[in-house]
Amino acid sequence: MNASDNRRTVLVTGAEGLIGTVVRERLGDRYDLRALTLTPQPYPSYVADIAEYDALPPAFAGVDAVVHLAGSPAVETPWEPVLRNNIIGTRNVFEAAREAGVQRVVFASSNHAIGMYEIDGAPSIYALGDPRVYDAHAEPRPDSLYGVSKLFGEAIGRLHHDLHGMAVICLRIGTVRPDDDPASEATLQAIPEPLAFLNPKQRRERTRATWLSHRDCANLIACALDAPADWAIVYGISNNSRQFWSLDDARALLGYAPNDAAPI
Fold first, then answer.
1. Cα 170 to Cα 152: distance, rounded to the nearest angstrom
2. pTM above 0.85, yes or no
3. Residues 57-83: tens digit of each pLDDT
């Protein structure tokens, strides 16, 4: 706890990335944020590669909670960087947190942990009124090595929760875009490789089902940091009409109440 203002000290790994930037810009007045980045930035940060464990402990000293965002973010990432950044790196973050006595880790998982349900159901799964909705009880069905790495992160989070009493909240995040626009041309072009077969209309519907606004993203992470729940896997999207991932657990366990919704 930061003694000067009673705000909790929160370390954000991958603070230079898109979601890391959202956290820094929108939650800096709520927590005493520390940044861990891979390269030097124009703001104060601890520079380290999360795959190099010995470099991490100083960044975790005196930290109350960690928001773990660092890693390779692309679904198409090949095995070697997935192994280094998303598996070895994630293990190192949890271990450094444990050794430092960190009480809570919020882990940026991904919808791609169960992405095969979407691939099998596309494009009809995006239709208004389609009855298919998936929650954390759905059997894991990753659509990529990236999805596999996110399941690994959830599993090692569960291990640290059960063995070491660490509170761990895993967020299966949907579509967060730099322009914060679910209808922009750039957003429609940035479709995951496994769904490259979708035509422009289907891409538009897909994005309007999976969009997570910057405001809701920051709110979801704050809920994960503040909620009394000490273990959860929840989905992170805005209140979209075409959604096929359930927000029930995020609402019930974290108190998440999205403010935004993609156009129908």
1. 11
2. yes
3. 999 999 999 999 999 999 999 999 999
* b/e burial code for range 80-112 (CB count within 10 A of at least 16 → b): ebbbbbbbbbbbbbbbbbbebebebbbbbbbbb
Instruction: Tell me the backbone φ, ψ of residue 13, rounded to 5 degrees.
Output: -80, 150
Coil, strand or helix: which one is 32? strand
- The pLDDT of residue 3 is 45
Burial label for 122, CB within 10 Å (0-12, 13-18, 19+), is middle
Structure tokens at 56: 């991490």
Give the active site residues: 146
Give all domains of the chain, ordered by start, each with its CATH number. Answer: 9-253 (3.40.50.720)
C-alpha–C-alpha distance, residues 234 and 251, integer Å: 9
Confidence of residue 256 (pLDDT cuts 50, 70, 90): very high
Q: Determine the Cα–Cα distance for residues 74 and 192; give it in Å rounded to an integer.
A: 8
Evaluate whether 104 touches 167 at the Cβ level (below 8 Å): yes
Residue with tokens 């960044």: 59
